[in-house]
Amino acid sequence: MFEHSLSLDTADAIADAVLEAGRADGLQPLTVAVLDDGGRLKVLKRADGSSVLRPEIALGKAFGALSLGMGGRELARRSQKMPGFMNALSDLAGGLAVPVPGGVLVRSAEGRILGAVGVTGDLSENDEACAVAAITKAGLVADTGDPA
C-alpha cells in the first residue's frame, strides 16, 4: 500500500509509545503532538503533570520540522547560523515553529515524509530520543535532522 500520510491508528500508537518511553526512562511528564503530512494535528497527548504550554511547544516542534522538511536538529543549527531567516519563519508560521531537537519527521521506508512528531517536557535530547524510539517502533523512519 502506498502511504501518503499517517493513519490515526499509527499516529495514536506513536503518541502512546512516546509517553511509554518517557515513563520507562523516568523522564519528566511528556507531551506529544503528531501531525500528518499537511501539518494537520492527528493526535495530541499530554501526560499527567505536564506544564501548561507543553501542547503548544510540542506542536511547534513538529510543525517547524514539517514546515522546512528537516528535523529539529538541523533547524537548531540553521537557527544559529541564520537567525533572521528563522525569525521570518516564525512570523510566517504565526509563532508556530520551534527550531530545537524534539521535532522529528516521520518518513516511509522510501523516504517520503508522512508527518512529524513533536515531543516536549524533558531535555530536548530526551524528548527527541522518545520520538525516535516511538517512530521506529511503528515501523517507520525517524528523521531528526542529523545524518543517519
TrEMBL record:
Write down the superkingdom of origin: Bacteria
The record's section on InterPro entries has:
GlcG_carb_metab_protein (IPR052517), PduO/GlcC-like (IPR005624), PduO/GlcC-like_sf (IPR038084)
Any idea what this protein is called? Uncharacterized protein GlcG (DUF336 family)
